[in-house]
Amino acid sequence: MTMATAQKPLLRATKLSKIYKSGRSLLPSRRQQVHAVNEVSLEVMPGETLGIVGESGCGKSSLGRCLTRLQDISSGRLEFDGRDITDLSLRQIRPLRREMQMVFQDPAASLNARRRVGDLLAEPFRIHGIGARSEIEDRVSELLRRVGLRSEHALRFPHEFSGGQKQRIGIARALALHPKLLVADEPVSALDVSIQAQIINLLAELREEFGLTYVFIAHDLAVVRQISNRVAVMYLGAIVEVGDADEVFSTPRHPYTRVLREAMPEPRLHAKRPERAQVKGDLPSPFSPPPGCPFHTRCAFAKERREVQRPALVKAADGRAVACHYPLDGPHPTGLA
Ligand SMILES: Nc1ncnc2c1ncn2[C@@H]1O[C@H](COP(=O)(O)OP(=O)(O)OP(=O)(O)O)[C@@H](O)[C@H]1O
Ligand SMILES: [Mg+2]
């Protein structure tokens, strides 16, 4: 998909951070802080799908909840459709819920088990005072049909559906009010591989039909690539690489992106690989992230500069941005790799 350069972003985050304070100390200064999202800047153009990928605990859900203002932002700026929404109160944000919606990882947990599906889908219309009763029923039937279910499913309870069907209901609910932006937080991670493809195809169809813009979050680069125009790779709360989805996938420039790429299952044809990147050790504790480059403790290329400088996310002429002292196809300051 080509984007007109004159278009304005639908969503723009500038140095967005989310810090959680936890720990039991009575002294505020002793409480531990988690920098779950660390100065993330990104733009999402109308009609585009930005994929966000990274391993468990890197801050993807926190970022997703900040982008939809389901939680407060600690610092930075967030604009939606040209409007600064960084500091809007819960009440002020309510009308915007029609325009930005979230689909969650666990479809079972995100649907109230005691209410019939028809009720769950009618709720957004009632909350926003849209439509008379009979009209809402029609809209609910239409929504069910649109996500591949039947109108009689409205009478059933969530537990009577399979995982994939529950996720279809979650998507229908998010779409009820025709939002502009859908942030999907691991919408297929809980599903079987065969069902994953169906749900991704459904999301892609709906994107075309309703002109939706997506932020699509997953820990699996292959899943993200299937639906995204661009991909942002997250590590310990920060974006370490952003670019065209196919290009990031085929020629990763950040060593961490390459590790994610190499971790993907390959068709047999490619089983004989000349070199295999491996990530050493565990994700460092987000309570005490490493100084300098946050990836240096696991990076095969890192040398002395890691201690002093955190690499900035620098955009190259071809549009790819990488935060690395030793980008894989760029100049290597120490002659490594
Ligand atoms: N409400 C909270 N209070 C305190 N810490 C939190 C809270 N939510 C998340 N965290 C911490 O913030 C960091 C990022 O968590 P987050 O859930 O955003 O990661 P994630 O990338 O979505 O992980 P996963 O892939 O497992 O869903 C983690 O260290 C987590 O423990
Ligand atoms: Mg998550």
From TrEMBL:
- Which residues are in the ABC transporter domain? 14-261
Give the UniProt subcellular location, in the record's own words.
Cell inner membrane
Database matches in InterPro entries: AAA+_ATPase, ABC_transp_ATP-bind, ABC_transporter-like_ATP-bd, ABC_transporter-like_CS, Oligopep_ABC_C, P-loop_NTPase
Alphabetically sorted, this entry's keywords are:
ATP-binding, Nucleotide-binding, Transport
One biological process term from GO is:
transmembrane transport
* GO molecular function (one): ATP binding
Its membrane topology:
Peripheral membrane protein
NCBIfam families linked: oligo_HPY
* UniProt similarity note: Belongs to the ABC transporter superfamily.
This protein's name? Peptide/nickel transport system ATP-binding protein
